[in-house]
Amino acid sequence: MNKKTFSAVDRYYEDLLLGEEYEFKQINLAAEKAGLPAIQVSPLQGKFLQLMVRAQGSRRVLEIGTLGGYSTAWLASGLGQGGLLLTLEIDPHHAEVAEKNLAQFDFEGEVQILVGDAQQLIDEMLLAGTEPFDLIFIDADKEGYADYLNRVVKLSRPGTLIIADNVVRNGKILETDSRDPSVLGIQRFNQELVGNPRLTAATLQTVGARGYDGFTFIIVK
């Protein structure tokens, strides 16, 4: 088994379960044209996020890391009428590309892009007494994952689902002597996770067109 096989299986299930999904493909094309890195979730992972929003009956969703808006669109497409998705992006260029991409869609809920440092933006939400979120997706700089987690728990309620992407790092998460800032960031995130009595979690490894990685799924007690 190799990445070629994993990618072929991804394509098989994309064709079988997703169809053309024209607007979503246009997001990736526009992001590539604008010079954004190709680090967005895969189509099947995006559909999975949509299903998680629907399964939770989520009315309020928070995303950390917008990039070109691909995962944002999948999350937003799971919202019902009157729902709200806030997505945080530090790079103004990325946010501009995402805004244009998301304008193609007619979501049932409202989508807002907030530009700035995510930790600062979350701190501002906490000071403002922002209503808790039902689902939170973390997919930004790995060095900040532990700090994001500690903050978003305060924006959660019992039953909130927190999903963290890219937590396996091609198996490098096992390297105790790693000097990779992303690996170190996920290791610190894991320490904060297991040290918080309000959280219960499971991690699933993934393979596919995006290589070997994984998601951590966290429920706030």
Looking at the overall shape, the CATH architecture is 3-Layer(aba) Sandwich
Number of helical stretches of at least 4 residues:
8
CATH class: Alpha Beta
Structural class by secondary-structure content: alpha/beta
Number of domains: 1
Spatial arrangement of strands, main beta sheet: 3-2-1-4-5-7-6
β-strand percent reads 15-25%
Mean pLDDT: 94
| Gross geometry | globular
Instruction: Kindly state the number of beta strands.
Output: 7
CATH superfamily: Vaccinia Virus protein VP39
Q: Helix coverage percent of residues?
A: 40-55%
- Detail the poorly predicted runs: none
CATH topology type: Rossmann fold
Computed Rg: 17 Å
Report the biggest beta sheet as strand number plus sense, adding barrel if it closes: 7 strands, mixed
Q: What order do the helices and strands follow? A: HHHEHEHEHEHEHEE
Distance between the termini: 39 Å
